[in-house]
């Protein structure tokens, strides 16, 4: 499973994608194979040579490579570079990112691709929105924490803490509740961590520094992409953004800034998204009702101190009453910041 059925703008686009899919580049998936080699090789070499390179340059390289690896995992989930999901999974299971398993990311993300549920609180696992029942339950401190998270620097700083909190809480609940599939998932994750930790140990790379000095900033970097990636709207096709980001961010996030295109055509490879977008730019901006951003720099300037209005979903204030709440199955980056506040002693 790689996501929902493709939604084409028109017959002309369908024919364009058929031609591109028949090309040698798309059939070979060469860019993705090269990406796998560069990421794995780059990580291994950087750790092995970190004392020659120096701690700061090595750290910056590892932050880039581990963030890139997260983008690669997303590509693997959507059926690349092979047609075989289990084979693709093998390229994404080594936990360079440490804090959560590939299987958890895969299952939550594919649920997120049910577009009619996009942004619906307690149904979409990647939604930042709340039901009015839950919002009413929050105290003033908790609401201010949500608004802080909805600023650009707040998201950047809080995302790593939320993901780390989610991982520890998820491990605890899985074992306490005797959730066998989740326990197996985490045990496999721990086993796969051994070669990562072992390689760091062989070359005397500080483990604590890797956990917090590398993966912390990596989690912060991934939060940049998801900042205002979706909005609450009545029409599902108007909920995903087109962000004309610069080359640095496009390469790091493998063109997922063209997010409306990705949600319509989840099987398009990362190197095909710009081509498809440019061919249908005007139509996509009509389709998503003008949900457009001119780069992540614009988001940072506009929301340096002013939070985006992501609180109660106005179209689904009660969520979907017939749907069982996701609770612990929330995407780690979207773990409600209010849960962290409660753990820290804030009154509900």
TrEMBL record:
Residues 55-290 form the Fatty acid desaturase domain. The keyword Glycoprotein does not apply. Coiled coil: none annotated. Residues 319-348 are annotated as: Disordered. Keywords: Membrane, Transmembrane, Transmembrane helix. It holds the Pfam family FA_desaturase. Signal peptide: none annotated. The chain crosses the membrane at residues 30-49, 55-72, 84-102, 156-176, 183-203, 209-228. The keyword Membrane applies. InterPro entries: FA_desaturase_dom. This is Fatty acid desaturase. The lineage of its organism: Bacteria, Pseudomonadati, Pseudomonadota, Gammaproteobacteria, Enterobacterales.
């Amino acid at each position: 499973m790689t996501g929902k059925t493709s939604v084409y703008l028109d017959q002309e686009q369908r024919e364009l994608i058929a031609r591109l899919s028949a090309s040698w580049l798309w059939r070979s998936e060469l860019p993705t194979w090269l990406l796998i080699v560069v990421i794995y090789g780059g990580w291994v070499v950087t750790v092995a040579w970190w004392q020659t390179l120096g701690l700061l340059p090595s750290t910056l390289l590892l932050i880039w490579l581990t963030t890139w690896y997260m983008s690669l995992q997303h590509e693997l989930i959507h059926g690349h570079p092979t047609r075989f999901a289990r084979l693709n999974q093998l390229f994404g299971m080594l936990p360079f990112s440490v804090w959560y398993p590939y299987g958890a990311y895969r299952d939550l993300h594919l649920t997120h691709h049910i577009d009619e549920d996009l942004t619906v609180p307690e149904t979409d696992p990647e939604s930042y929105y709340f039901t009015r029942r839950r919002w009413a339950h929050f105290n003033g401190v908790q609401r201010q924490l949500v608004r802080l998270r909805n600023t650009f620097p707040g998201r950047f700083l809080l995302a790593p803490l939320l993901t780390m909190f989610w991982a520890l809480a998820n491990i605890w609940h899985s074992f306490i509740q005797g959730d066998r599939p989740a326990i197996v998932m985490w045990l496999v994750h721990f086993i796969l961590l051994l070669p990562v930790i072992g390689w760091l140990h062989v070359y005397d790379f500080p483990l604590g520094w890797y956990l917090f000095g590398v993966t912390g900033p990596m989690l912060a970097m991934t939060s940049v992409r998801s900042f205002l990636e979706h909005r609450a709207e009545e029409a599902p096709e108007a909920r995903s953004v087109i962000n004309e980001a610069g080359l640095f961010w496009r390469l790091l996030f493998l063109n997922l800034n063209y997010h409306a295109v990705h949600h319509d055509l989840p099987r398009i490879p990362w190197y095909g998204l710009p081509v498809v977008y440019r061919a249908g730019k005007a139509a996509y901006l009509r389709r998503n009702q003008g949900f457009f951003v001119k780069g992540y720099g614009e988001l940072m300037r506009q929301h340096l101190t002013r939070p985006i209005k992501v609180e109660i979903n106005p179209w689904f204030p009660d969520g979907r009453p017939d749907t069982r709440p996701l609770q612990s199955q929330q995407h780690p980056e979207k773990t409600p910041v209010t849960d962290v506040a409660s753990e820290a002693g804030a009154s509900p």
